[in-house]
Amino acid sequence: MKILIRLIFSLLIFWVATVSKSKAQASVQATANAEVIEALTTTETAQLNFGRFSPETQGGKIILTPDGVRTVQGTVVLGGGTHNSASFYITGQYEATFSITLPSGPAVLTNTQNNKTMEVTDWSSYPAPGIGVGKLVGGAMTVRVGAVLNVGDFNANPVGLYAGIYAITFAYN
């Protein structure tokens, strides 16, 4: 009888050990997904244009807001003609958010006749720059950019057309 009890007890321990090992782990097949969305695209719909002006005796600054409002500091006198903030039409994935990165330094505008220069600084935008600040409502959004043009006197910035380039980055989050 002792042998029978030992045998039953041994079989019971073996069965518990086998059952608990099989329940200590489980396998499952899971699903993974990925979706490629359309590229973020940008079109410049209006160029940054500080308009016509005269630097006068000391120069100064022309401040152009993202809304296209132009003001001056110093002896700069505004002239007629067109002025406007830059405008960019952004398209991409419906309702996606994106970031706006403005230039970290100045852009240089060079006189096309004599190589004299002016600097564009203090960049601003609407919406304001940052991570996730833009949302492609309906898959599109317009971003407006303003800045400050630093103008020297007549000797530093004589008559002529000044032009230059700058870079703005729009990126999905």
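^ that was protein a. below is b, sequence first then the tokens
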Amino acid sequence: MKILDTSIPELKIIVPNIFYDSRGFFFESFNVQTFKDQLGQSVNFVQDNHSHSLQGVLRGLHYQVGRPQSKLVRVTQGEVFDVAVDLRIDSPTFGQWVGRILSAANHEQFWIPEGFAHGFYVLSETADVHYKTTDFWYPEGERTILWSDSDLKIDWPLHGKPVLSEKDAKGMLFKDCIEF
């Protein structure tokens, strides 16, 4: 696999080695030893999540307090614009974000460690997003930052008004979020 740096050093794009032949393709989507060797991260994933969304759906920006999660995100069908926002108050990149198109075609994965909010916007007709987490869902600690917060200035590639859940439509402002 190849590891690509982003403008926030802790956020990484992981590009797997893909083996194609007349039958299709094969790639290793996760290997704990490779992850440790190439990223210097020892991780223990405890939960796999799968989200299916329609075009124009925007999910996020989500994070957990009390039991923060690191995430390894990939798309197995369709295409999304995936975003992580730095919530670590002592970080030199506090309040900055990284966005990346993840798709079934490019097979890229987004490593998002603890201390970041996460969200995505569906660009294709539908999209399946899979992500591994290092802690379980903790409803009491779940938080949502308003996707359109003017302090963050996220350049979402919107095609019309996004489709939001009630929770996401009522997200808090970044200045009011609980930092890590």
